[in-house]
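Fig. S4 source data, part A: sequence.
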Amino acid sequence: MNPYKAYNLYKKRAHKDTIIIRTLCFFATGVALAILFGIIAFIFAKGIPAINWKFLSTATSYEEQNFGILPNILNTVYITVLSLLIVLPIGIGSAIYLSEYGKQGRLLSVIRYTIEILSGIPSIVYGLFGALCFVTYLRMDYSLLAGACTLAVITLPIIIRTTEESLKAVDVTYREAALSMGVNRLYIIRTILLPCAMPGIIAAVILSVGRMVGESAALLFTSGTAYEMPKNLLTMYDKSGATLTVQLYQSFTEKPHWVPEDAPFAIAAVLMIVVLFLNISTYFVGKKLKRK
């Protein structure tokens, strides 16, 4: 066969395969986006009309037959920030050890494998662990602190693995150039590796925030279901409090007759807005730290 003709046949067949693969990829992406925007549109269409100022600025009261979620919003933001304060030093420190200080071998392989296993454990199991360890054994009772510690354990694998991969992705020539100048390893980590790995760390924080805000099963066993308005934001860590997800569950399963029909959808819409706000705030804070 003429080589030129064979080349044209191969090129034509390759072009046809490329079109098919590209079409399948576009179709899969379109289906994923359609599902995503369909869920968002459905929740917002059902929930936004039920949202008003009284709904956002008051607390639920069975005596006054009033349904409000302000304490739940405060509890959600508070427990998320408290969890990040607990998990970030531990997670980033563990990732630095695994990436920079740990001697590569069987021990580190076991540690990494254990972290992978922890990331796949169902949240209800973490809730049982938090109830036994933090609530009962450490005597934290049902409190936001117990819930924050449980969420920190849940999100610890995300922080460790993502941060470790971000540190490994930093160009090795940066380390070599700094070491050739006689700089110690701690200074390299603080001034070179962490700033370069900041986008990955921010991604880990955003993923963790999404997991924390969307968690409900574990918090039912640890932070409790109280819906009272906190009196002091600085000392509310030892008080029981229901987050938005817990309140959503309660309003859907144990809904009194005076609670609006679309209240669960309204809470879901507010929850999505809170997640978006926390993610944007985390992104800009990380961007500012990276610039510094």
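Fig. S4 source data, part B ends here. Residues 15-50 form one domain.
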